[in-house]
Amino acid sequence: MSTRDVAWDVDLVHDLFNDWDANLILSIPLSSSRERDVWFWCLEKTGHFLVKSTYKLLQMQKEAGAQPNNSDFWNYIWKLHAPPKVKDLVWRATSDCLPTKNVIEISACAGWLEAMFKQVEKAKRDDIAVLCWALWKTRNELLLVPTTTFLIEEDGWETWQRPPATKLKINVDAATFDNNGTFSFVCVARDANGSLVEAITRCQTRNTTLELAEAMGVREAISWIKQKAWYGTVVETDCLSVVQAIRSNLPFLSYFGSIISDCKLFLEQMRDVSVNFIRRSTKRVAHSLARASYFVVDRTLRSNDVFIELLHVIVNDCS
């Protein structure tokens, strides 16, 4: 590892390990905070173990149709093209064993579902089952899950908004290219006129999730602001989980969490720099550049050397 650049020494890793191990090692994102390595639960972004994610994994691994039944209605249920959790809910609903106090008094669910399944074609049964699961999930979230949110008034714009005069706005976007195991992210800085100040592209050969790539893009944008002393800049991303994690006080132990820790550390060292959530439609310029970054690798672009297609998107964004 190159400690000066906080990056893997790719050639050395490939010299010391076989291809399989080397690729696994190189897929680990490095943090500049130099925190001690810890064990973490890879099924949660926070890295903390939760029974919920374990149950979800087991349900995904469980073979469908584990309980045979010869009746037409039960065959309808077990032959649904739906996740096991959906089938489980339908089975519970038709068996009058949903965890609710009113189920003993109101037992019409089984009859209604059986009638619906007989009236519609096979594809519609899947839709009905998934819709029932979604309604049940929404009902439980409204009743049982705290409504804490980390969104602020500046979040959620559906069109690109100009920053105040003398300020800059940086839009971040990431893309993964599964065909060759690479990912990229871009940061596009624009001024109050909507004009391109500068854009950077980064592409790395590593298997990663889009969420982790977005987090690394935000970290790069904040580091870029610090390097340029662009204080008062707003960073925007359409990855809500990244924004929520940066604003949260929860400890994150995962790879994702190490990137978030870097973001928080950089933000503490600067004044008047914020990270906001936007809709995907808001960042057309960054999105266009992210898709092209596979061919424009590790470049710094300015208005005089950016390709003409991107200039058209910038002009349309500001009109």
TrEMBL record:
Pfam family for this entry, one: zf-RVT
Stretches assigned to the RNase H type-1 domain: 171-292
Superkingdom: Eukaryota
GO MF term set: nucleic acid binding; RNA-DNA hybrid ribonuclease activity
Ranges of residues in domain Reverse transcriptase zinc-binding: 49-104
InterPro entries noted in UniProt: RNase_H-like_dom_plant, RNase_H-like_EbsB-rel, RNaseH-like_sf, RNaseH_domain, RNaseH_sf, RVT-Znf
Protein name as it appears in the record: RNase H type-1 domain-containing protein
Organism classification: Eukaryota, Viridiplantae, Streptophyta, Embryophyta, Tracheophyta
